Amino acid sequence: MKPLVPMTFSPSLFELDGISKKTVEDHLKLYAGYVTKYNEITERMHNLGDDDYAKANQVYSFVRELKVELSFAYGGVVNHELYFAALGGGTQKEPGSLLGKQIATDFGSFENYKRDLKASGLAARGWVWTAWNSREKRLVNYVGDAQNSYPVWYATPVLALDTYEHAYFADFAVNRAAYIDVFFRNVNWGTVEESFSSLAKK
Fold first, then answer.
1. Sequence-ordered list of residues with C-beta below 8 angstroms from that of 191, at least 6 positions apart, any chain
2. Do residues 181 and 111 make contact, with C-beta atoms less than 8 angstroms apart?
3. pTM of the model
4. With CB atoms 3.0 to 4.6 Å apart as the test, which of 52, 125, 154, 172 could cross-link to 135 if both were Cys?
5. So where are the chain's domains?
6. From CA 133, how far away is CA 117, in angstroms rounded?
Protein backbone atom coordinates (compact mmCIF):
# COMPACT_ATOMS: atom_id res chain seq x y z
CA MET A 1 0.00 0.00 0.00
CA LYS A 2 1.28 3.45 -0.92
CA PRO A 3 1.49 5.96 1.92
CA LEU A 4 -1.12 8.70 1.96
CA VAL A 5 0.01 12.18 0.95
CA PRO A 6 -1.69 15.43 1.98
CA MET A 7 -4.11 16.83 -0.58
CA THR A 8 -3.57 20.21 -2.21
CA PHE A 9 -6.50 22.58 -1.92
CA SER A 10 -7.59 25.72 -3.73
CA PRO A 11 -5.30 28.75 -3.16
CA SER A 12 -8.48 30.66 -2.26
CA LEU A 13 -8.44 28.69 1.00
CA PHE A 14 -5.90 31.27 2.20
CA GLU A 15 -8.23 34.17 1.36
CA LEU A 16 -11.34 33.24 3.30
CA ASP A 17 -13.78 35.84 4.55
CA GLY A 18 -13.33 36.09 8.31
CA ILE A 19 -11.01 33.08 8.79
CA SER A 20 -7.40 34.21 8.85
CA LYS A 21 -4.63 32.89 6.66
CA LYS A 22 -2.66 31.91 9.78
CA THR A 23 -5.56 29.85 11.11
CA VAL A 24 -5.80 28.03 7.78
CA GLU A 25 -2.02 27.47 7.62
CA ASP A 26 -1.93 26.06 11.16
CA HIS A 27 -5.01 23.95 10.46
CA LEU A 28 -3.39 22.47 7.35
CA LYS A 29 -0.32 21.54 9.41
CA LEU A 30 -2.60 19.67 11.79
CA TYR A 31 -4.19 17.87 8.84
CA ALA A 32 -0.75 16.93 7.49
CA GLY A 33 0.07 15.55 10.93
CA TYR A 34 -2.90 13.20 10.71
CA VAL A 35 -1.63 11.96 7.34
CA THR A 36 1.81 11.32 8.85
CA LYS A 37 0.38 9.47 11.84
CA TYR A 38 -1.91 7.38 9.66
CA ASN A 39 1.06 6.24 7.61
CA GLU A 40 3.10 5.55 10.74
CA ILE A 41 0.34 3.46 12.33
CA THR A 42 -0.26 1.57 9.08
CA GLU A 43 3.43 0.69 8.90
CA ARG A 44 3.40 -0.55 12.48
CA MET A 45 0.39 -2.72 11.76
CA HIS A 46 2.24 -4.34 8.86
CA ASN A 47 5.01 -5.22 11.27
CA LEU A 48 2.86 -6.88 13.95
CA GLY A 49 4.23 -10.23 15.03
CA ASP A 50 2.63 -13.46 16.16
CA ASP A 51 3.14 -12.48 19.80
CA ASP A 52 1.28 -9.19 19.25
CA TYR A 53 -1.71 -11.01 17.75
CA ALA A 54 -1.68 -13.61 20.51
CA LYS A 55 -1.86 -10.87 23.16
CA ALA A 56 -4.85 -9.05 21.61
CA ASN A 57 -7.15 -7.91 24.41
CA GLN A 58 -10.04 -5.48 24.75
CA VAL A 59 -8.69 -3.85 27.93
CA TYR A 60 -5.25 -3.11 26.53
CA SER A 61 -3.10 -4.59 23.83
CA PHE A 62 -0.89 -3.28 21.06
CA VAL A 63 -3.34 -4.56 18.45
CA ARG A 64 -6.22 -2.69 20.10
CA GLU A 65 -4.19 0.50 20.42
CA LEU A 66 -3.20 0.46 16.77
CA LYS A 67 -6.68 -0.40 15.52
CA VAL A 68 -8.34 2.39 17.52
CA GLU A 69 -5.74 5.01 16.67
CA LEU A 70 -5.79 4.03 13.00
CA SER A 71 -9.48 4.93 12.83
CA PHE A 72 -8.83 8.19 14.70
CA ALA A 73 -5.98 9.19 12.39
CA TYR A 74 -7.92 8.25 9.26
CA GLY A 75 -10.91 10.23 10.49
CA GLY A 76 -8.60 13.19 10.99
CA VAL A 77 -7.43 12.86 7.40
CA VAL A 78 -10.80 12.44 5.67
CA ASN A 79 -12.77 14.87 7.85
CA HIS A 80 -10.30 17.66 7.13
CA GLU A 81 -10.25 16.87 3.41
CA LEU A 82 -14.03 17.22 3.31
CA TYR A 83 -13.84 20.44 5.32
CA PHE A 84 -11.13 22.16 3.27
CA ALA A 85 -12.45 21.00 -0.12
CA ALA A 86 -15.75 22.84 0.40
CA LEU A 87 -14.22 26.15 1.54
CA GLY A 88 -13.35 28.92 -0.91
CA GLY A 89 -12.70 28.47 -4.59
CA GLY A 90 -16.13 29.48 -5.87
CA THR A 91 -18.80 32.10 -5.97
CA GLN A 92 -21.86 29.89 -5.51
CA LYS A 93 -23.20 31.05 -2.14
CA GLU A 94 -26.32 28.88 -2.06
CA PRO A 95 -27.03 25.29 -3.13
CA GLY A 96 -27.87 24.64 -6.76
CA SER A 97 -31.19 23.29 -7.99
CA LEU A 98 -30.71 19.60 -7.18
CA LEU A 99 -29.21 20.07 -3.73
CA GLY A 100 -31.45 23.04 -3.00
CA LYS A 101 -34.55 21.02 -3.78
CA GLN A 102 -33.40 18.18 -1.51
CA ILE A 103 -32.63 20.61 1.31
CA ALA A 104 -36.11 22.12 0.93
CA THR A 105 -37.63 18.65 1.05
CA ASP A 106 -35.70 17.53 4.12
CA PHE A 107 -35.46 20.77 6.11
CA GLY A 108 -38.27 22.94 4.75
CA SER A 109 -35.93 25.67 3.51
CA PHE A 110 -32.25 26.60 3.19
CA GLU A 111 -32.61 28.86 6.23
CA ASN A 112 -33.99 25.95 8.27
CA TYR A 113 -31.07 23.80 7.10
CA LYS A 114 -28.57 26.44 8.22
CA ARG A 115 -30.33 26.80 11.57
CA ASP A 116 -30.11 23.04 12.09
CA LEU A 117 -26.46 22.87 11.02
CA LYS A 118 -25.53 25.80 13.27
CA ALA A 119 -27.29 24.27 16.27
CA SER A 120 -25.59 20.96 15.52
CA GLY A 121 -22.25 22.78 15.39
CA LEU A 122 -22.87 24.38 18.77
CA ALA A 123 -23.81 20.98 20.21
CA ALA A 124 -20.91 19.03 18.69
CA ARG A 125 -17.60 18.42 20.42
CA GLY A 126 -15.69 17.84 17.21
CA TRP A 127 -17.54 17.60 13.91
CA VAL A 128 -20.81 18.02 12.07
CA TRP A 129 -21.46 16.35 8.72
CA THR A 130 -24.24 17.01 6.27
CA ALA A 131 -24.66 13.54 4.82
CA TRP A 132 -26.84 11.79 2.30
CA ASN A 133 -28.51 8.82 3.96
CA SER A 134 -29.01 6.41 1.06
CA ARG A 135 -31.28 4.14 3.07
CA GLU A 136 -33.66 6.90 4.12
CA LYS A 137 -33.08 8.96 0.94
CA ARG A 138 -32.63 12.20 2.81
CA LEU A 139 -30.01 14.67 4.00
CA VAL A 140 -29.20 14.67 7.72
CA ASN A 141 -26.85 16.80 9.85
CA TYR A 142 -24.98 14.32 12.03
CA VAL A 143 -22.98 15.28 15.15
CA GLY A 144 -19.66 13.65 15.97
CA ASP A 145 -17.58 14.07 19.11
CA ALA A 146 -14.31 12.66 17.77
CA GLN A 147 -12.42 12.11 14.53
CA ASN A 148 -13.55 8.50 14.48
CA SER A 149 -17.22 9.13 15.31
CA TYR A 150 -17.91 8.43 11.65
CA PRO A 151 -19.12 6.42 9.74
CA VAL A 152 -22.85 6.46 10.26
CA TRP A 153 -24.38 3.53 8.45
CA TYR A 154 -25.70 4.29 4.92
CA ALA A 155 -24.71 7.96 5.28
CA THR A 156 -22.06 9.63 3.10
CA PRO A 157 -20.93 13.18 3.99
CA VAL A 158 -21.15 15.95 1.41
CA LEU A 159 -20.06 18.74 3.78
CA ALA A 160 -18.01 18.75 6.98
CA LEU A 161 -17.91 21.45 9.66
CA ASP A 162 -14.94 21.32 12.05
CA THR A 163 -16.00 22.49 15.51
CA TYR A 164 -12.78 21.71 17.36
CA GLU A 165 -11.31 24.86 18.90
CA HIS A 166 -8.27 24.77 16.61
CA ALA A 167 -10.56 25.63 13.68
CA TYR A 168 -11.68 28.96 15.11
CA PHE A 169 -10.21 29.93 18.48
CA ALA A 170 -7.44 32.20 17.15
CA ASP A 171 -9.98 34.23 15.19
CA PHE A 172 -13.11 33.99 17.33
CA ALA A 173 -11.97 32.94 20.83
CA VAL A 174 -14.97 31.23 22.46
CA ASN A 175 -17.51 32.63 19.99
CA ARG A 176 -18.18 29.45 18.05
CA ALA A 177 -21.50 30.77 16.78
CA ALA A 178 -19.74 33.62 14.94
CA TYR A 179 -17.30 31.13 13.41
CA ILE A 180 -20.16 29.00 12.09
CA ASP A 181 -21.77 32.10 10.54
CA VAL A 182 -18.47 32.84 8.79
CA PHE A 183 -18.16 29.20 7.74
CA PHE A 184 -21.45 29.55 5.84
CA ARG A 185 -20.11 32.63 4.03
CA ASN A 186 -17.14 30.64 2.76
CA VAL A 187 -18.79 27.39 1.64
CA ASN A 188 -18.46 26.74 -2.08
CA TRP A 189 -21.85 25.19 -2.69
CA GLY A 190 -20.79 24.17 -6.19
CA THR A 191 -18.39 21.65 -4.68
CA VAL A 192 -21.04 20.37 -2.27
CA GLU A 193 -23.52 20.12 -5.15
CA GLU A 194 -21.10 17.96 -7.13
CA SER A 195 -20.66 15.57 -4.21
CA PHE A 196 -24.39 15.33 -3.64
CA SER A 197 -25.22 14.86 -7.32
CA SER A 198 -22.98 11.80 -7.60
CA LEU A 199 -24.66 10.23 -4.55
CA ALA A 200 -28.25 11.10 -5.44
CA LYS A 201 -27.93 9.30 -8.78
CA LYS A 202 -27.14 5.98 -7.12
1. 85, 86, 89, 90
2. no
3. 0.95
4. 154
5. 20-85, 97-200
6. 16
